[in-house]
């Protein structure tokens, strides 16, 4: 069956093109977004090969794609951990360091050495923290870490 009378393309070829285009978009985006439409296009391609009316192919394509997108994307995203990789800055939160220059929030001074790197620092509660005190990084704000004293166990 010729889908578009003015173009030499039938509905099987149309669905192959849709699947390929969606596959290319998926490969470029790396976000598990259009893979569901590739699967929907393949299902519609199978229907087209059995000469099911084109309107039914479109409806099945949309239903299959949307159902897969809604119900399986969250599962795939969870297991593939997309966008969950910590960067170097994110990985610093929770680490301990040593104050190498007194932290004085009023003057905006203070430095902490964390894993061999030196960071500008400020304390979470505004207290001054003397040199050689062990601190834990709570957050990274810009180029400065927010720290608190590590309480020594008695």
Automatic annotation (TrEMBL):
It is a multi-pass membrane protein. Gene3D superfamilies: Nucleic acid-binding proteins. It is found in: Membrane. GO terms for cellular component: plasma membrane. The chain crosses the membrane at residues 12-42, 54-72. Residues 90-149 form the NfeD-like C-terminal domain. Keywords: Membrane, Transmembrane, Transmembrane helix. This is NfeD-like C-terminal domain-containing protein. It comes from Andreesenia angusta.
